[in-house]
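Sequence in, structure out. Go.
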Amino acid sequence: MRDKLRKWREENYRNSEQIVDVGEELINEHASKLGDDIWIIYEQVMIAALDCSRDDLALTCLQELRRQFQGSHRVKRLTGMRLESLERYDDAFKIYDAILQDDATNTAARKRKIAILKAQGKSTEAIRELNEYLEQFVGDQEAWHELAELYINEHDYAKAAFCLEELMMTNPHNHLFCEQYAEVKYTQGGTENLELSRKYFAQALKLNNRNMRALFGLYMAASHIAASPKVSAKVKKDNMKYAAWAANQINRAYQFVINGVADKYTMKMNTDTLKKWAKKKLLT
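Output:
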């Protein structure tokens, strides 16, 4: 059981129900045999218990951690997280402010404050806090992505695109960032944005040729460009080809599913064909 928890912890699994089941039994029956591992297990189980609305178990773990680590910022943050789960947001905010007063560089406390603002539906305040945070911690990719999501929710697509551009600069091989950037550009609309959208859907497919969402996006972007009265005959013809190619790949994928043979091999598209299209047309 200890090894299971360690594996889930190291691989950052958020399988909270399983962690609670295994962790509670381990704590109740073998706590005295776990040595120093017990403290990280208490923390892991407590966070999982909060996810599962098991405040009784979360409080038990928190009390043990308080006894061992009095005054610890980490334990104070866990206390704040429990208050959040009870919707005592003001009390949690005070705890995080106190932590930041002692240590202004405590990123975990600042992120918890942003999480509270989101939970309260205060998107404008959350965006402001995230921007201030990124002025100091510009390399925090998780924060950039969170800010992009907030801007998308507020329909501020230009700023969302900027955040995703920052992410693509530091993660050029991440197909999901390319796909999301393409979706934002598609939503903005207009021929220029649609062409950029098509190119980044193609790039996402080049990075991961099993990304069906990007394949659908490529089809939609190319179809809209082909249907536009503002583009030249050549652009219209080229995009009709791109849309037809994407539609064919989508039909193939669905046919595999219908035939009951969809697996990691049959779902894979023709990589060489995709690269050829990308190199010659889609990414130029």
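Check: Residues 233-258 form the longest helix (26 residues). The chain is about 75% helix and 0% strand.
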